[in-house]
Amino acid sequence: MAATPETKTLTENQALAAINADYEQRYGFHDAENYLYKAPKGLNREIVEKISEFKSEPQWMREFRLKALDHFMSRPQPTWGSPLLAEVDYNDIHYFVRASEKPGRSWDDVPEDVKRTFDRLGIPEAERKFLSGVGAQYESEVVYHQVREDLEKQGVIFKDMDSGLREHEDLVREHFATVIPPNDNKLAALNSAVWSGGSFVYVPEGVHVEMPLQAYFRINTENMGQFERTLIIAEPGSYVHYVEGCTAPTYSSSSLHSAVVELIAKPGARIRYTTVQNWSTNVFNLVTKRAVAQEDATVEWVDCNLGSRLTMKYPSVYLMGERAHGEILSIAFAGKGQHQDAGGKIIHAAPNTTSNIFAKSISKDGGRGSYRGLLEIAKGAHGSRSKVVCDALLLDEHSRSDTYPTIRIGEDDVNVGHEATVSKVGDDQLFYLMSHGIPEDEASKLIVNGFIEPITKELPMEYAVEMNRLIELQMEGSIG
Amino acid sequence: MAEIIDVCPVAELPPGERKLVEWEDLEIGVFNCGGQLFAIEDRCSHDNGPLAEGEFDPESCTVECPRHGSLFDLRTGQPKTLPAYVPVDTYPVIIEDETIKLEVE
Question: Which residue stretches of A55-156 are H helix?
Fold first, then answer.
């Protein structure tokens, strides 16, 4: 039954209110600040030295940070991507906040108020049920870390990055910043200067970690900057699936999240990295993620972006060895006031390499979704195959979708496909479903669910359920 | 066809120093890594920006691209870190009559 204009507006407003109410209750709350240390706002050499000193780091890491700081200071703020980038005020951010002395291995070691937060978010419960290991980062540092004993016995390392550096310095030094050097871009330089927390994962040759390792990132403070650093090394023939989730309280002023994630899949290894990003809409999410896949290795990024004010994130895979495979599944949902500038990059640097990029974006209530992608086939990468599909769904006339695909091909004997579609949930689609007795709201949800299904089916079950729930919530009353 | 070009007298390029030379439309960086001399094209294979002006580490015999941070091995021209993944051109260095020379083509 068609709604009258008045009831339509009412329903939409109610639905929007419901979205905020739910985020507030589930993720948007914040705790009292009871910190061991909170750096003053702004960034300078002294703060970087202080972070390094707090962590009792080796001299080379301290020098690495300071050099990265110089890079950060000397580079201009990027002007491409989104006009919202101009709103980032680097002087209005706390670059380091310490909530706990050291990461606990037992949930009892975690400070009471932090524990309550993660209890509310369901973290330890999740660990017991279906994970091989879990890490929880609160503000700048990891407050809790645990990995299953049997995996530890097989030589699997799953630590917070600070402990990884302390306990496995040689391994870290050999691989750290080889995939993303500090000078790669301004935000990678910033992360390199002030990084704190994140995960260090090492999977020995031939070991398959059957259940996912999970990290959960939480910002609590207003005007906080979170700069985790993650490095995953999968030795030949090994397999690991890493899942990360992130939320923050809803504040009226901005926070910044700028991670660097490096993945190294050695010959025949497979790494799957799943992100469900659900930051509150005051968070700028500017992340650099890049992977190397050596001979016969596979890297898959499953990247879901629901939250944040602005996300700029293009996970990439460098296919460096023959027959390596890269896969990027990206989904972005841009609601009111949001810009999701997502996508991916695949570089075919060796022969007979294969890749797929599937990107989907949904924009509604004036939100903006962009796909920005690069597919490069280097000279000599003969026999390579790639398929890029990017689809956008617009739910109303105020929303926007852009596609910025770049394809560079330096070899003749290759097979590359690119498909792009933009669609609007049309009256005829709705009419068709409604003529089969499906109410209008249900019909539009069905259309959206069908649109994102190829990606949600790749998520672990509990995440797929959560994702569908979130999408449904955001869809409430969107068409009426 | 290969051609030999002069760079400078040996004494003008001591260990830890570098020199840029031009030949036709090529720009080349010549580096002294602890007494051993190496020459690479002054062009990063990532985005064609200048390379040889970047941070030079004579100990590890590397130069870091000033634009995006790729680290190149001066002995082989191979990138040791991303985002560059294609090696840059290298040139044989010859010392003759106390003069550093390059073989270019």
Answer: 59-74, 112-121, 123-130, 149-153
The two structure tokens encoding residue B92? 């044989």
Provide the number of structural domains found in chain B: 1
For chain A, how many residues are written?
480
Please count the residue pairs, one from chain A and one from chain B, whose beta carbons lie less than 8 angstroms apart: 39
| pLDDT tens, position by position, A110-149 | 788 777 777 777 776 766 667 778 888 888 888 888 888 8
- Could you tell me the residue range of the domain that residue B98 belongs to? 3-104
The 10 Å CB-count burial string (b at 16+, else e) for A199-237 is: bbbbbeeebebeebbbbbbbbbbbbbbbbbbbbbbbbbb
Quote the minimal CA–CA distance from B82 to chain A in Å: 5
E runs forming strands in chain B: 3-9, 18-23, 26-33, 36-41, 55-57, 62-64, 71-73, 90-91, 93-96, 99-104
**3 state SS of A8:** helix
| Pairing of the two strands A225-226 and A255-257 | parallel
Distance separating alpha carbons of residues A301 and A275, to the nearest angstrom? 8
Contact A164, A231 (CB under 8 A): yes
Instruction: Find the helix or strand (DSSP H, E) in which A241 lies.
Output: strand A239-247
pLDDT tens digits for range A91-103: 999 999 988 767 7
Contacts B70 to A, Cβ<8 Å: 181
pTM (predicted TM-score): 0.90
Residues in Cβ contact with A462 at an 8 Å cutoff, skipping those fewer than 6 apart = A126, A130
Query: What local confidence, expressed as pLDDT, does residue A300 receive?
Result: 97
CA distances from A317 to A103, A311, A345 (A): 31, 19, 6
Please report which helix (H) or strand (E) contains residue B43, including its range: none
Judge whether A287 and A307 are in contact, CB under 8 Å: no
Closest Cβ–Cβ partner in A71, A177, A184 for B83: A184
Question: Would you kindly state where each structural domain of chain A is located, as residue ranges?
Answer: 5-475
Q: Min CA distance, A386 vs chain B (Å)? A: 19
Residue A162 parent element (H or E)? helix A161-167
CA pair distance A318, B85, nearest whole angstrom: 9
